């Protein structure tokens, strides 16, 4: 009994320190965004002497608001497309048997081996040829293409763990493949779908290279490139710059807090069978 309590205490201390190491930089970022320049340099690790909430408004008005909304649009459309196409492909690969099935799966998963940096120039030429350069679609289509392989891999592994008896019962009751997918697979696959949404959303939200190269108009740029522009505009005001960083980090933090249980359940269950 004493050993168990000691072990639990050690584990509690370990995870408390680990959580503190993760949470403290986020808190420091949010508080530093409320400081003036002099306060930031003279009292780097302390609370603000004067709480300048206007820094966040100034960062938003300086362009972060526009870049933030662009990122929200691109991320939502990209994630929804990844979830729809990925879940349908994963359903087909996990439930239907056809000639060349393994080859199709290998071709899809081979997309995981392609680095985005390698495809930068071909994609640039392709988007120009299609007339999509400097549009939202110049970001959305590559994001969907690069996020799909991993999403299909995760969802297929999870769908394989769903009992086939449920599908067979639904077919006996008159359901076709579409109804099985929509009324059985999707509701039971919510944990892995949430996991894929979080992973894809985080990657799209933080992506910088494509957002810098494929979009030229500042009105269409997303928040990673927008933060770089904010830095060039506000060379000396670190409080407003850090406020912009805090605003950009907020959506992903909220998403992980809201969907952390589904995220863990989806990844742990999806890794059991595949």
Q: What's the overall average pLDDT, rounded?
A: 87
CATH class: Mainly Alpha
CA-to-CA gap between the ends? 39 Å
Radius of gyration computed on alpha carbons: 23 Å
What proportion of the residues is helical, as a percent range?
over 70%
Bin the strand percentage: under 5%
CATH topology: MetI-like fold
**Structural class determined from secondary elements:** mainly alpha
Overview of this protein structure:
With 274 residues, the protein is an all-alpha fold. The chain has a single domain (27-39, 49-270), classed as Orthogonal Bundle (MetI-like fold), CATH 1.10.3720. It has twelve helices and no strands. The chain has helices at residues 2-32, 37-42, 54-95, 101-109, 120-130, 137-160, 164-172, 177-188, 190-206, 209-213, 223-233, 238-270. Helix 3 crosses helix 6, helix 3 (54-95) runs antiparallel to helix 11 (223-233) and helix 6 (137-160) packs antiparallel against helix 9. The longest helix is centred in the first third of the chain and has 42 residues, at 54-95. The protein is flat and about 70 Å long. The model has no long low-confidence stretch (mean pLDDT 87).
